[in-house]
Automatic annotation (TrEMBL):
CDD domains: HTH_XRE. InterPro entries: Cro/C1-type_HTH (IPR001387), DUF5753 (IPR043917), Lambda_DNA-bd_dom_sf (IPR010982). Residues 38-93 form the HTH cro/C1-type domain. It comes from the Bacteria. GO terms for molecular function: DNA binding. This is Helix-turn-helix domain-containing protein. It comes from Actinomadura bangladeshensis.
Amino acid sequence: MRPAERGDAPVPLVPDLRTGSDLRAAGPTVLRMVVGAQLRRFREAAGISTEDAGYEIRGSHSKISRMELGRVGFKERDVADLLTLYGVTDPGVREPLLDLADHANTPGWWQAYGDVVPGWFEPYLGLEQGAEVVRVFEVQDVPDLLQTPEYARALITARHPEASKEEIERRVELRMARRRVFERPEPLKLWAVLDEAVLHRAVGGPATLRAQIEHLIEAAERPNVSVQVLPFAAGGHAGESGPVTLLRFAEPELPDVVYLEQLTGALYPDRAADIARYRDVLNRLGVQAEPPSRTREILRDLLDA
């Protein structure tokens, strides 16, 4: 399953802003991105600077930038004032956008886990829940969305030795809850490339690793999940810089998002050239890795060894 590249076809200036459950189901993070993208396009079409737009809503140019990137929630008055400034007076355009802006302020289900979710990770949870496709390369562990509870518990315990049993279970519960993306009417498409080392690192012990490999085999049988192993024999490869995740959304006005997790934070490269480079890395890894059919054979061989 190789996701097609997002084309360069222009998006209509006045898009079909769906107000039904299909777009709202994407979650508040994606809704903020959609609203922000439309505000940016209306502003650019009107030839208005971020400084002038900020002045209109009693804010700064940086506030406008954060709004357009979907990094903050929206006040109805701010959105209405900006639309007026940009010359967007058609109720058929204004009202759907204002409705989306209102729903973008609804808390996501994952915010109930705020006690165990660092601030830098919360945006990713929203992106993951709203994505149409997630492409990931992992060099140490099985990707979060493909982990068994036992495997996840062993990882979390090793990485949070100071955490109480209750906190560890909360973290495991959250990780398992994230898998609801596979239960949507249009389930998430996941394409994962795993370094072979992942399959030999006995996280939680041999029995836990074995159960995890069995789960990978089962998951890889789904039509919306592709798993590839990058073998040691491949030698040098395109992913030498480490793990990378790329998220793609159904909304054509939204760009791909690259997520690079670090020990105490995360990076989201947003330059188009940088995103294209990471996309190319994932494409090349997909070529260098064993195809999905051969990967399933490798996984079964590990169980028989």
